[in-house]
Design brief:
Length: about 160
Amino acid sequence: MFGPVQSPATEIHGCLKKNRKKRGHVSAGHGRVGKHRKHPSGRGNAGGQHHHRILMDKYHPGYFGKVGMRHFHLSRNKYFNPIINLDKIWTLVGEEAREAAAKDSSTTPMIDVTKHGIFKVLGKGQLPDQPVVIKAKFFSKLAEKKIKEAGGACILTA
């Protein structure tokens, strides 16, 4: 009514805590000589290059230091270049579209890969032996060669 009521299940009774067994024993299991002090070796990752060096070198090699060149004002969209291979190009429009295009030879189907969020077409795999026009920002040499061999065309878009 006046505040949150805690159930007895969330609290551990004193009689159930482990240090009850240690009552009456002077050092409570922490030894007389070394003593149980607060943070004898430092808190957290302290001493990684000093007194904990062996552990850091053994289990975390390369943790300290730098690598590579600095790139000021790095914008990742400059390097964003999703790819697709020729063997997967027809999956963008579906098998039915490919079969329909194979039946109707008067028109050549156009696949605009940029509409599917893909920028570059690579030449892995085989194209079916039917002409297709592909629009993309980039083509590899092998992809361009295979598309033209199939009777298709490559159209570059900005």
